[in-house]
Specification:
single chain; 573 residues; alpha/beta; 8-stranded parallel barrel; 14 helices; globular
Length: 573
């Protein structure tokens, strides 16, 4: 009892210090979901929760407190259930973070700076030499916890073949320890041959509890020589009752580059302001035969000339499609170019990934030569880098690259700056996640991959309907995408950089045609006004034996599809 009274006394003094000094100059935040005004009884309950002495158990004398609401420091002492609350208690040598929306407490050194801006999917703490990211996760499959973690987190870092191919050293054998009623499993890795300023050391911890499906994922990365240790942080972990809900406080403000060519600026402004959709086309062998034979017949039957032509380039070649580019230019169209950091067409994921060498700074010469080729092309390019990164099937996804979406961002920014240095003034950069995040985990959420807005000018969308079983309508797919993008990108121009509806094994032709009709219904109704371009992926999916598993390609002789598409174009142009 004596200790309890001392803690409460310190708390009262700290609250006074907080309101008078610690929060001076900090603004209030009124963003986020709003609920009914709480009763006085409810306010009393949440005040007690916010200032719960149990949350300070074991701390020394408090020097100050900070209350964060919806990611912003405020002077209030009320925990509003509909908002996102965090408390930080300070002593002379450490800070304690009480994360109400994620339901945990941890202790950190005083030099760790919090970042709650993406609170629904992660919290983050940084020093000059280290970054700690924490996500709350749920085993959403009918798998054991070990199976879920291996399949959705550690699959690649625990593969000796993958580590050898990418110069990664396992610095300790994986081990577990008991933390109160929890089990913590640790993995330690190092990216070898990195510059001194690159965060090359990784420690991961998974905190699980008995048969519970819920767990916490800690990623600590740091520079060589940094004096940091994840174990004491994990040892301090405590689970608390979840109160409130995570709220995004990060915003992305569209910025138009001032170094663009006049032609690029004009094209971009036209796209942003147009009230119709420019349709695009991707087909196999476009550069060799498609532009001369396949596409003209399709366009004749649709009575429509596709303004946008799409093509892919892999790091393995890093060669601009000069012949296709010239045809696109001569015919008065625009080129969408997708560049992917892969040497295996995103197939041999357990082998070499160039992304890690780009992160190390070892590939700049190749990237510069590619930049020069695009600069020489001259015309505006819709430039899409590393699409579908928020998945587990690309060479540049987080799972393949140290379970760290930051590496995607770092290598994006590296290429962007190389383009700037080489004078590339004709690229409109597109950030294009997949419509669902795979693995189905917070750490893999698409927003964790988004670079700062100065490095992106358009937002890409991709959502397919395979046609194999029940048909998800276009509206179902893109309503969900719009809902997910709305908190961040409603002021941005959008592009469906690739999509399609298949006919399954080729027999679901009526369903496919209905899907297309309903897609055009959405556009005729004025839905998705942010979408300025939509590119149909006219290529099929194949089985391992070479047979077609799903028919996405536009078949000029498919009368149902062609009729639905032609009538849709007539209604919406």
């Amino acid at each position: 009892m004596k200790k309890f009274r001392r803690t409460v006394s310190v708390l009262a003094a700290s609250c006074l210090f907080l309101s008078c000094v610690a929060l001076a100059g900090c603004g209030d935040s009124s963003d986020g979901p709003q609920g009914d005004a709480p009763s006085e009884e409810e306010l009393t309950a949440v005040r007690e929760e916010l200032q719960n002495p149990d949350h300070m158990e074991g701390l020394g004398e408090l020097t100050k407190m900070e209350h964060y609401e919806n990611g912003v420091r405020i002077a209030g002492d009320e925990l509003v259930e509909a908002k996102d609350n965090k408390m930080i208690y300070y002593t002379a040598d450490e800070k304690r973070v009480v994360n109400f929306s994620d339901g945990y407490i941890i202790d950190l050194g005083l030099d760790w700076v919090p970042d709650f801006s993406l609170s629904p999917v992660r919290t983050r703490y940084t020093t000059d030499q280290a970054v700690l990211t924490i996500t709350t996760e749920t085993n959403s499959y009918d798998w054991t916890m070990d199976e879920f973690i291996e399949g959705n987190f550690t699959k690649f870092i625990t593969s000796s073949k993958f580590r050898k191919a990418n110069n990664i050293e396992q610095t300790k054998e994986p081990y577990t320890k008991t933390v109160g009623e929890y089990t913590a499993t640790f993995y330690n890795m190092e990216l070898k041959d990195c510059p001194a300023d690159v965060m090359s050391h990784y420690t991961y911890a998974f905190i699980t509890q008995g048969e519970s499906k819920d767990f916490w994922f800690f990623t600590l990365k740091y520079q060589d020589g940094a004096q940091v240790d994840l174990e004491p942080i994990v040892d301090s972990f405590q689970k608390i009752r979840v109160r409130g809900v995570g709220v995004y406080s990060k915003t992305f403000e569209l910025k138009v580059p001032d170094f663009w060519s006049d032609e690029t600026k004009e094209y971009y402004e036209r796209l942003r302001n147009q009230d119709h959709i420019d349709w695009g086309f991707f087909g196999n062998q476009l550069e060799k035969v498609g532009m001369k034979y396949e596409l003209p017949i399709i366009e004749q039957r649709l009575n429509y000339k596709f303004p946008v032509i799409s093509q892919y380039v892999h790091y393995a070649t890093s060669e601009f499609p000069v012949k296709l580019g010239e045809m696109v230019k001569e015919e008065g169209r625009q080129l969408q170019l997708t560049y992917q950091y892969t040497t295996s067409n995103n197939t041999e994921l357990d082998g070499y990934t160039p992304t890690l060498d780009i992160y190390r700074g070892k590939c700049d010469d190749t990237l510069r030569e590619f930049a020069r080729q695009i600069k020489e092309y001259g015309d505006p390019v819709l430039f899409r880098l590393n699409n579908e990164m928020n998945t587990d099937w690309t060479s540049y996804c987080g799972m393949v690259n140290m379970i760290d979406p930051d590496i995607f961002i770092e290598t994006w920014v590296r290429l962007y700056k190389i383009f700037e240095e080489e004078g590339v003034d004709n690229c409109i950069w597109i950030f294009n996640p997949f419509d669902g995040s795979y693995p189905p985990c917070n750490w893999a959420n698409f927003i964790n991959y988004m670079p700062d807005s100065e490095y992106v000018q358009m937002i890409g969308l991709t959502g397919y309907e395979s046609g194999k079983q029940s048909f998800r309508s276009f509206r179902t797919i893109y309503d969900e995408i719009e809902k997910n993008y709305e908190p961040f990108f409603m002021d941005w121009p959008w592009i469906i950089s690739e999509f399609g509806c298949g006919s399954g094994d080729g027999t679901k032709l009526e369903e496919q045609a209905t899907w297309v009709k309903e897609m055009f219904d959405c556009f005729e109704e004025g839905r998705y006004s942010n979408i300025k371009v939509a590119v149909w992926f006219s290529g099929n999916d194949y089985n391992a034996d070479g047979t077609i598993s799903n028919y996405y390609a536009i078949d000029k002789d498919n009368k149902l599809f062609m009729k639905a598409f032609k009538q849709g174009l007539e209604r919406t142009q």
